[in-house]
Each structure stands twice: as C-alpha cells, then as structure tokens.
Amino acid sequence: MQPRTVTLIKGDGIGPEISQAVEEIFAAVQVPIHWETAEAGLACVEKYGNGLPAETLEQIRQNKVALKGPTTTPIGGGHKSVNVTIRKSLDLFANVRPAKTLPGVKTRFDNVDLILVRENIEDTYGGIEHWQTPDVAQCLKIVTRPGSLAVIRYAFEMARSMGRRRITCVHKANIHKMSDGLFLDCFREVADEYPELQADDILIDNACMQLVIKPEQFDVMVLPNLYGDIVSDLCAGLVGGLGVAPGGNIGVDRAVFEAVHGSAPDIAGKGLANPTALLLSANLMLYYLGFAQQARRIETALYATLSAGIKTRDLGGTATTQEYTRAIIDALPPAAEVTEHPVAPAKGPFAHREQEPEYEAWTLRGADVFVRSDKMPSPPAQVGKLSLSLISNRGTKVFPGPTPDIFMVNWFRLRYKAETPITNEDIQQLLTEIARQYDWMHVEKLHEINGQAMFSKAQGE
Question: Are 245 and 329 in a shared domain?
Fold first, then answer.
C-alpha cells in the first residue's frame, strides 16, 4: 500500500508522552505512515489567542486523517474546546466509541463488546446559548433531519460491514417529542432499509440502568450528541475507564482519531501516562486507512502485554510508560501469523450526507413571543388575526385558567394563534403591540402542515 501522510497533534500534558509511545510502536510495526505534526492546545492559546490555529485545520483538510492527543479545555470560560471546534469545522458528524473488555484489566464485567455511534455536530453542542433575562439562560437543542440521517445511516452501514447484528437508538422522545422524536423517526426510516439487522430503541434513562446491569445485551448504539457524550464515558467505565477508551470522528472524506481522556498535567513528564487509549484510537485509524494487518498485529501485542500483567499504574500495574511501550513492541507477532477480520469501524462509501428532500409548504399560524416581566403579564388579547391562547412560565401554563401555585421567574412565553393563515407582517404587528408594554426577548413562528401542528402543544390547548 502507498504510505499515507497523517497529521499528528500531540496535545497538552501527557499528550507528547503517549504520542511518542504510539510513534514507537508504529515504527516497530513499520506502518506505512508519515507523521506531519501540527499544533493545538494551551501553547496555541498563548501564541495565537485560540487553541486551534487555522493552519492546523487546513493541514487536516489536506491530509484528511489526523491522530490527536488530549488537549485541555477550561471549564466555565477560557478558549473553546479544541475537540468540538475540530469536529464542527471539519463536519465530522459521527463519533465512534468502542467499549470492549480488555484482557488483564479488572472490571465488574467480563464480556462487554459494544460500539457507540454519537451524533457529533448538533444538539446542545451547537453552543447556541443566550441570556434571556438576568435570571434566565437559554440553550437551544438543535436536531436536524439531514444530520440525524447521516449519523444513523453511518451506524447501520458500520454495523453491517462489521457483522454486527443489533443496533439500538437511544433517545428521550417521550419528553423531547419533537427533537428526539425526529431523531427516532429518522432511525426507524433508515432501519427499514436494513432488514437483516435487529433495530430497536430505548429511553436514555433506561439505557443507563441497563448498561450497568447487563451491558452485554447491547451491540451497536446510536445516540444524539449530549446523550452520546455521557453514555460513551459510562461505557468506558465498564471496561476500565477513559485510559482504555478509543475514539474516532468520521466525516464524509476525513477523520480525526483521538484519546478522549484528559491531559492529566499533574502526571506529565513522570513516566506514569497510559498510552492505551491513544494506541487503540490509532488502531481505529489504521482500519479506516485500510492497514488492517498492522492494526491486528498491534492489537494482538497489546492484549498479550495486558494478559501478562504488564500495565501502567492506573490499570493496577507498575510499568512506566516506556516499559509498557517496550513490552508491546516485544510482543508483536510476525505479520504472517495475523489474520484480518473487521474488529473496528473502517471507512466506507456510507460516510455521506443526504440531500434534503422536498417538503410541503408550511402554513404560518401563530407565534410564541418570550417577554421579560417581573409579574404575571397582561398582554393584548387580540392583535389583528392573532389571539392570545396561552401564557407559560418555565414551560408550565399559567393562563388561561387559575394560576398554579408555582414559583415564576421573570420570563414568560406568550402564545398567539390565528384561525386562518397569517403572514410575517402579522407577526411584526404583534411584536410592535407587545413592545408597547414589555421587553420581548425572542420570537418563534408556529407552523402547520396539512392541519398538523409543527410545534409542541401546551397542556390545555
């Protein structure tokens, strides 16, 4: 095979140490890869004012494949997450997180072998947040049909290519009826195209409980972004922690593979770092690139090393980073003894985005206007064609009918609806009238298709 140029981002903290371990193991296997290093992380914040220079992104675009060590993300402020920025900037819509029991790593379960496929771009990770009043912060949960179809179809094609038998959609569509409901609808639509695969769904809360009771019942799981973030770490805990959890971010024609654990600056430079997660992520990359034999040799050597009890301290052993790396290299089997089979997700023609289909015309029938008020508002009951049908506070109806005995914040939703179709001019007139009394924060238009409301119904409507 022709050698491939791969971008290597060593990252912060222990990143350079575990990256060096991977480089040494790859060199011993003679993997046909040329590493091209790039910057990202804390050092870049000091030099460029952000954690991810434009040059690094461009290099990944050119090389189309990257391996990334851990980078530090500040909590509650500071620079943006390098991981999230890379995923969104490169449209890496599928996050693949295998969780598999490893030999010699003591856990509560012995037979876990599942793969999570997490939508990687949308949901609350769109980062669309606003202060509505000094007491109310809002975060938008964005779920789209094209985004959902892309990651779900990837999950099904991956399951088929790997010989997996079951795929489970994880959601909360009983509460988030429209956003998670859309994700679930897309799942069922795609599932019909794969009759050979068992397809089912489960609520996110039940999924978490089932995972810590009987994780072996799951095979492939596909989830929206936020649930996927949480559940993937839960599954990592089932097999030994983030130190043994690989990850890959897949787009249409590019991918970034990464260790998902933190940068651990407290142990940096002490020889205590565990390179397993980055090595397993690099192995996912090898399968993606078509270097399956080299990946199997590394995997075989890793399993042999762990089975022999040679482990770093976080896994209950005494080996230093260097000793652990050398043990894996010494355990490498001859290439002739290694058989190839699909043990990890590989690149395929299924990594694509579908064109948005044609839809029927929407009929504009109303608006939700969010206003700031320190007491129960008394907005106009009628403005042109629009009639006030509902006032709610934090999602609880407070008008019409008796006001419930609840604590109300200074942020109310005013719902206006019309019996006949309206125009944008009608909504502009509504906003003008409301602004005479209240400071309105934002407005959401309410539509129908063939008489079906394309907005959440409030209790009592």
Answer: yes
The answer to whether residue 98 sits within a structural domain is no
Torsions phi, psi for 92 (to 5 deg): -90, 85
Tens-digit pLDDT profile for residues 112-144:
999 999 999 999 988 899 999 999 999 999 999
Residues 233 and 253 in one domain: no
Residue 149 reports pLDDT greater than 90: yes
Question: Does one domain contain both 230 and 112?
Answer: yes
Q: What pLDDT is attached to residue 337? A: 76
Give the number of domains in the chain.
3
CATH number of the CATH domain containing 209: 3.40.718.10
pLDDT digits (tens, 9 = 90+) for 348-364: 445 556 666 666 778 99
- Cα separation, 390 vs 401, whole angstroms: 10
Instruction: Give the length of the chain.
Output: 461
pLDDT on residue 456: 84
Please spell the DSSP secondary structure of 171-205, one letter per residue: E-TTTSTTHHHHHHHHHHHHHTT-TTSEEEEEEHH
Look at residue 321 and tell me if it is in a domain: yes
What domain range includes position 197?
A: 108-238
pLDDT at 141: 96
Q: Are residues 334 and 418 in the same domain?
A: no
Give the residue from 60, 50, 53 showing the smallest Cα distance to 80: 50
pTM, entire model: 0.90
Q: Which residues pair with 138 in a beta bridge?
A: 130
Residue 257 lies in a domain: yes
CA distance 112 to 215: 6
Torsion of CA 107, 108, 114, 116, to 10 degrees: -80
Phi, psi of 401 (to 5 degrees): 95, 180
Q: Which of 193, 214, 238 is the last residue of a domain?
A: 238
Two tokens, residue 155:
């999950």
Q: How far apart are CA 194 and CA 215, in angstroms?
A: 24
Q: What is the rounded distance in angstroms from the CA atom of residue 399 to the CA atom of residue 275?
A: 58
> Final residue of a domain: which of 275, 308, 342?
342
Q: What are φ and ψ of residue 113, in 5° steps?
A: -155, 80
Measured CA to CA in angstroms, residue 183 lies from 47, 179, 211, 444 at distances of 41, 7, 21, 21
User: Is 179 found in the same domain as 132?
Assistant: yes
Give the CA dihedral 209, 214, 217, 222, nearest 10 degrees: 30
Considering the domain architecture, whether residues 8 and 43 belong to the same structural domain is answered as yes
Residues 252 and 219 in one domain: no
Contacts of 238 (CB under 8 A, 6+ apart): 99, 107, 108, 109, 112, 211, 212, 215
Mark whether 327 and 375 lie in a shared domain.
no
Q: Report the C-alpha gap between 413 and 417 in whole angstroms.
A: 13
Q: In which residue are the tokens 């209950």 written?
A: 316
Q: What percent of the chain has pLDDT over 90?
A: 79
